[in-house]
Each structure stands twice: as C-alpha cells, then as structure tokens.
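Worked example

This section walks through a single chain of length 226. The input is the sequence exactly as stored; nothing has been trimmed or padded.
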Amino acid sequence: MSKGQGMGIDGDQCAQGGEGQAWLWNRPVGECRATLILAHGAGAPMDSEFMQQMAERLAARGVAVLRFEFDYMAARRLDGKKRPPNPQAKLLEQWRAVHDRVRQQVAGPLAIGGKSMGGRMASLLADEQGADALVCLGYPFHAIGKPDKPRVAHLAELRTPALIVQGERDPMGDRPKVAGYTLSQTIQVHWLTAADHDLKPLKSSGRTHAQHLEAAADAVAAFLTR
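Given that input, the structure is written out below as tokens.
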C-alpha cells in the first residue's frame, strides 16, 4: 500500500489532493486489506461526525479510507458560506481525478463510494473507472418527496460489485420502495432496522446509532475483504 501505512488512526493523516486540497486518510494499524475512497454527502463535509466515525470503524477492520471534498464544500470551509453542490458533471470530473490519483498511490483492491450524494456520484462512474467495488451508505434512490422520479436507471446495468447500506425507513429510499426497483445482480442491499438516511434507528427499535454504525462497518469490511 502507499507510504505511511501503519501509522495508526489516533489522528487522521493528511495528504495533499488535487489543486492544493487536503485529503484525510484513516489507515489500519496492521495489515491493510483494501482501500476505500469515501465521498461526503451534499450537506456535510468530509470530517462530519458520520464520516469520521465510519472511517475510524473501517480502519479498525483493516480497510484504509481516503476522504476528500468536492470543490463547493472545500470553498465553504474557507469562507463559511453554504453553497449548493457543483453541477453533476463537475462532481464526476473531480471524482475521476481523485480516483486516478489514488490508484497511482495504492496497490490492492480499491473501492469507491460515499454517503448519499457522494455514493450516488461514485455509482455513476464505477464501471467507467474500473473500480474494484462500490459502497454506498444511504443511497438517495430519489429526492425527498419525489418517489416518482427515481435515480436508479444506471443501477439496473451496473457491472461493478456493489454494497448499499440502507435504513429501512430512509425517506430517500425505504425498504418497500426499493423492493420495487430493478437492480443489477451485482448489487447487495444491507438493510438496517428502522434506520433513517443517516442510519439512525427509532428508539422504539431497541437499537442505537452506534450499533448501526458498527453493523454498517462490519458489512462494508466483510464485503471489501471477502
């Protein structure tokens, strides 16, 4: 794997990405069995609590995680002003550049994916880029309140092995709604009981968010290192 592996995850290791932007690495202390490039969702940065906890949990399970920020989010970090996501073409362009750069730095399996929007963008180019695997955490099967406009056409033909970790009551794709979609046989969907888009369960379920994050990390690590 890349130089610096085994440095530990007691503090995120920073590396320069494209155009002077910083990347965040979480690396396993021991053997690295796979690498995952994990992109953030539309409204939260690469170091949000969700992204941080998932990266730490995966690194503890032998998966190195690289996080980066899309340009609109990196700009918000500089001046604090909220911006909408960049146009899809721009997001995909940046995803390609990050994947190509990381591919040059690591050996072994390299997966791409992300939280919500980040995962959706990864799914759009997984086949094109020849990614070894795809991981989506809370896939936005449709916009909130717009189940009649699904974002699934490309998922029916996906060739890349994929894992979608989804909450059963996700307002962007709950279990009954997703059951009606035609998905490629390469896609596995791992359902979390009574969980929402951030994988948080109802209190009445008897589950905690931490337990769901642990379950998600277990599923992702098993999928990537099988």
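What to look for: The first strand starts at residue 13 and ends at 16.
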